[in-house]
Design brief:
This protein is an all-alpha fold. It has helices at about 5-35, 40-45, 55-70, 70-75, 80-85, 100-115, 115-130, 135, 140-170, 185-200, 205-215, 220, 225-235, 245-265. It has one domain. Helix 2 (about 40-45) crosses helix 6 and helix 6 packs parallel to helix 10 (about 185-200). About 20% of the residues are buried.
């Protein structure tokens, strides 16, 4: 490799290191801020273990409707016993001396990362900015705001909508001879990994918006590739063992691709119309 090629490559590495250092420092500061709230965050993640979630309220409303319309059916299947059951205490367990501390560190780290997302995305923008035009660099504020917002929406969508479904499905296997006994590391690591994954999934429309504005992708490029997107979504989801988790990952991931297609159509770079005939060539 010639020297004129080595020098720019080294400059990119130095710039990348600079941006990574800023991101790491920002995450450490965010982690320090989030540390005091890590116990509250853990309690929020533990909520579905009580068995009382929004799914329970939906089921209760449906059963009460059955009681109103078909009392005999309601009594026959003893639905009253199902909806009147008190919340159960299912505490998380740990088997290593420092395990709860490490879990607290992980929760605080992810929470701190989310707190400093504007800094993270701004550093990403600064790294790619030298390759952009002056007009494209003006999109820094919309990019940082949109990327931060969509990541947070994805994380909250998972925690509020998807996480109770996964835990509720797991608890449905409890029986007289089969009881749940969740390890804190397995439980929290699984949750944190999916929070991060859903945040990244919801970034897809923002990434498509940028690429389409720069003319790199377009509606015509993305729309015919729906079957490949569905296949890719299935492959990504297949890394999770249970069927329910696979579906709750695959469906949002593919829906984000569909949204990205329409984002490219609406906000994509428009091609300039080609003149029918050049001056002097008119018939």
């Amino acid at each position: 490799m010639s020297e004129e090629h080595v020098a720019p490559f080294m400059e990119h590495l130095i710039e990348l290191r600079k941006r990574l250092v800023v991101i790491v420092v920002a995450v450490i500061i965010g982690m320090g801020v989030a540390w005091n709230y890590s116990s509250d965050l853990l309690s929020f993640v533990e909520r579905p273990l009580t068995g009382k979630t929004y799914l329970t309220e939906i089921k209760k409303s449906a059963y009460l409707k059955v009681k109103e319309l078909a009392p005999a059916l309601y009594d026959h299947y003893k639905l009253e016993k199902d909806i009147s059951a008190p919340p159960r205490l299912r505490p998380l367990n740990y088997s290593a001396p420092m395990e709860p501390f490490y879990i607290q560190c992980k929760i605080a780290m992810l929470a701190g990362f989310i707190l400093v997302l504007p800094v993270v995305f701004y550093q990403v923008w600064l790294f790619i900015a030298p390759g952009l035009t002056k007009r494209e660099r003006r999109m820094v504020v919309p990019f940082v705001v949109a990327a931060t917002f969509t990541f947070c929406v994805g994380a909250m969508f998972f925690l509020i909508i998807i996480w109770p479904v996964i835990i509720n499905f797991s608890l449905s296997y409890e029986a007289e001879g089969l009881q749940s006994w969740f390890n804190i590391s397995a439980y929290v690591n699984f949750c944190l990994r999916l929070i991060l994954l859903f945040g990244l999934i919801f970034e897809l429309p923002v990434l498509t918006l940028l690429l389409s504005r720069f003319g790199i992708v377009s509606y015509a490029f993305l729309a015919p590739k729906r079957k490949y997107a569905l296949l890719a979504s299935s492959i990504v989801a297949a890394f999770h063992a249970d069927l329910i988790t696979m579906f709750v990952i695959m469906i949002p991931l593919y829906l984000m691709y569909e949204i990205s297609i329409w984002v490219a159509l609406v906000f994509g770079k428009k091609k300039k119309p080609v003149e029918d005939a050049l001056p002097g060539e008119a018939l």
